[in-house]
UniProtKB/TrEMBL annotation, chain A:
SUPFAM superfamilies: MetI-like (SSF161098). It is a multi-pass membrane protein. It is found in: Cell membrane. Gene3D superfamilies: MetI-like. Belongs to the binding-protein-dependent transport system permease family. This is Iron(III) transport system permease protein.
Automatic annotation (TrEMBL), chain B:
The lineage of its organism: Bacteria, Pseudomonadati, Pseudomonadota, Alphaproteobacteria, Rhodobacterales. This is Iron(III) transport system ATP-binding protein. GO terms for biological process: quaternary ammonium group transport. GO terms for cellular component: ATP-binding cassette (ABC) transporter complex. The keyword Cytoplasm does not apply.
Amino acid sequence: MPRSGRCRSNRQRIPVGRFSLTSDRAGLAWLGLLAAALGLVPWYKGNNLFAGPAASALTEALAGRGWLWPMIAVTSALSIAALTRGWQRSNLALGLTLGAFALLIWQGFAVGLRGPSADWVGSAFPRAADGQTGLGWGGFLAGIALTGLLSDLFAARGFCRGERFPAFCITAIVALLTLFVFFPILRLGIAAFVDPTGALALGTFWARISAPDLWGVACFAGAGRCGVVVNTVVLGVLSASFATALGLALALLVNRTDFRMKRALRAISILPIITPPFVVGVAIILLFGRTGLVTSFVADLMDVRPTRWIYGLPGILIAQVLAFAPVTFLVLLSTLEAINPTLEEASRTLGARSMTTFRKITWPLLRPGLAAAFLLAFIESLADFGNPIVLGGGYEVLSVKIFFAVVGARYDLGNAATLAMILLALTLIAFWLQMRWMGKKSYVTVTGKSDAGLTAPLPPILKIAVFAVVLPWVLFTLAVYIIIAAGGFVTDIGRWDLTPTLSHLVTAFRFEIAENGLQLYGSAWDSMITTLWVAGLAAPLTTLVGILTAWLVARQDFAGRRAFEFGTMLSFAVPGTVVGVSYVAAFNVPPVDITGTAAILIICFVFRNMPVGMRAGLAALAQIDKSMEEASQTMGAGGATTLRRVVLPLIRPAVFTALVYSFVTAMTAVSAVIFLVSARHNMATAYIMGRVEAGEYALAIAYSAVLMIVMIGCVALIQLAVGTRRLGRRQELQGRPAADPAE
Amino acid sequence: MTETAIEFVNVLKRYGSAVAVDKMSFSIAKGELVTFLGPSGCGKTTSLRLIAGLELPTEGQVKIAGRDVSRDPASERNVGMVFQSYALFPHMSVLDNVSYGPTIRGVPKAEARDRARAILDQVGLAGYEARLPSELSGGQQQRVAVARAIVQQPDVLLFDEPLSNVDAKLRRKVRAEIRELQQRFGLTAVYVTHDQEEALAVSDRIVVMKMGQIAQIGTPAELYEQPASSFVADFIGDANLIEGKVSSGTFHAAHLALPVRAADGIVTATIRPERIRLAKGGIATIRSASYLGSRMEYVVQDENLEFLVSRPISEPRLTAGDSVDLQIDPADLVLVR
Ligand SMILES: Nc1ncnc2c1ncn2[C@@H]1O[C@H](COP(=O)(O)OP(=O)(O)OP(=O)(O)O)[C@@H](O)[C@H]1O
Ligand SMILES: [Mg+2]
């Protein structure tokens, strides 16, 4: 081949690192941001970002808020240190940055809303007596700048192989998790140990935690009520048992019989995910309540007095089993699918009857799956808030009791915190058990050759049992969803008044197009619009944080990676109610005083749902050869570019899953949000809960139906936007060159 | 022309408590093709990744073109790398794959594409620009990977076992192509392999590694003819390792007594199998004889010593049980300690 003159002439040095700031500039940029945050931007909340330096930390410090000085002084020292060459690798710079960070936190806690938190602070700084409000733009920007600076210093020391982008992402995510997951839980833990005045009170804590209305077991003796903890656990165990049984029946039906409507069954099992809370409860009341359709029918037929039996354990149980069966179904289905059919074949060729084979082979192999499904449902039951509050009646469970301790007439954060700690402990125990089960070597035999034999058909008796369980479930689900579908559009489905009407819809969503534009009159518009905004903002952010975290965990090799991964998963384990109270405990007071804003709703969703995006991302990344990203790096692309141009296009399905999941969850979540909504920022689920409490069932149902339709529409839109192009498949080639030069 | 392209100064890389690269120092001249050779797990890939910036050294310095890049991430070094799995972007066409690097580094799109086309032409892939990598054969994919790595005129081109995914028959051809390209563009290249034959065939110099350390550096001929240790002698080609001792200018082992120039003491002598001659009638016995097509291979027992001997097929055949005399030219003996 001739020498190419062209290549020779191109042999000039290619500018290296054109798209990345050189080391010095990135660090100085963060330092500049820090200086601006302290000197140019209002420090406290309630001020416009561009209000000017008149309210900056520097001005405030000059005006007597002396506890801001240490932070400012250390920052100044840092700026001087930055004048030296190679400052980013010096221990001095690292020490000063960590010091500034610590002092930023310290100034926030040293002085509270009403005055100094310690006597010496008060005597050192007289103006501390005035107290201080929460941090504003300046405070948050300073936090961001210090996080950025810290990550830059880490990268300069070789953290993340010197790559600045992943170093920043890790530092930022750790900072955010600390602030929005661990700090609230810590605050909640502290709240459990103090009395209303804020003093340490172990006696009060002991009185709270040993209260008989927590642990009482009188109900087992047939006299009186049980404690709320006992109630919660009993409900959890029963609900998880029934849900697991139902899930098993469904899984056997799909995997071990020639039942035809498997796809329909899978579709039905998705329904609970997009069903807003409360509405199933309402449907159950409309069916089985004292004046419910079924109740009245049975009462007329058998001439018995209708009762309120559905309120309490039975009602919650029915609703929960309905809601959790799809989860257990999916777990058990994957377990069944993973059982190597040759084992069962072997048993049958050895002469075992089908029942013996099932008992001796299939059942033992299923047991780990059953345990996992049971614990999953148990954890969900602990966290469930929507069903108990609608159907609970006098049967109190922890999540509901926590709610009333915070929003009820008797506001008692200490008590709520104590209950929340108990709920958290129960959940963590269940999680721990589940990890142990999963961690043990599972019996399930995955060979990769799943078609290596035929699965054993069910023994006839079992087959009958399966149908006997599944059929009522199908009928019941149908009844519930018919009520949901129709209830909003007829006058009063509860009294079987089926005159079609749009009146409920009009109450909720009336609008007029007048001369001065679109006018929204319906009572539900506010919450609907807020919900769409919040979910619309939370979904991409959740996806971003989740996928980013997955990428960091899967691809970056950094100290503390295990702890990092564990921390993100922990945020998922915390029940929603606990998150809700912990946010109230942490963010109702300075320094981070953000309750009542839309931001807190979004933040809450992002950190609660991020682990799902992370799981999806991890699964997708495991399929992708790491060296593609390394190739991109050696070609000059930094972490961010590699992520955008190489990784994201390849894991699009995971991005889609994360987006849809976080969007739908944000639309339908209630347990945490219910603590965080405000008059200005009401959410759809909170609005629906209000209607249910007021007995306006038809309105609640109408709204829920609209919500479901909106969700399906949005999911379709997301699908359109993200797309799911398949890659790597050989396609029919056009214009293939005549001669293949390889041969 | 001995401008230094790459230099390692006491480079140490630790993973947790395990040391993967242990205080390595060497330098590679511009335009040279150097191979890292050694048994599995000896730190070849790690050394390569240290040059690329995909790992940063725990201690020591990595210099590229005279600049200390020890703390620079991969994206800020000017290296090209051909990965074992090729690592082509499956969602981009061949052209987009090759023009990715220039585009990232700020070359205008049209010019980046022109450069990519020119390089693709050079590697014989003109006409394949619009294909996806999945629509290419393995050998073609490999050439796209090479094109992608050299399009930016890197300071150094890195190969991590580039032939391990290539059909055994094609290997010889592809490695010749790689060598030809490297020389045509005057590129500095570092090549990792654990196949000694491959290393001998392509390299200007070879770095033999053992447990994270350099066992020997030298040209293929030096390593073969003057191994510095029994490890090197054994790893490169076949070798007879004879333990014995030197006293007053003579090497003694079993019946052997050969004049050498070395100080007294216990040594290991190495000799290549094809350097030993056999004559009929003697005190050694042939234990086994194997016909290998191009030559005969014998295992010869002499007292407690066992020798591997390789003879051209043209010589008279010997069979197992024959008595032979081992003839060794003292000049062929390399003493190592
Ligand atoms: N990311 C890592 N974490 C921990 N240990 C590692 C890591 N990468 C490599 N090692 C260890 O460092 C040593 C050298 O590994 P390296 O991959 O460089 O070997 P190699 O010479 O390329 O071997 P092979 O010929 O098998 O590819 C090995 O012992 C390996 O286990
Ligand atoms: Mg290797």
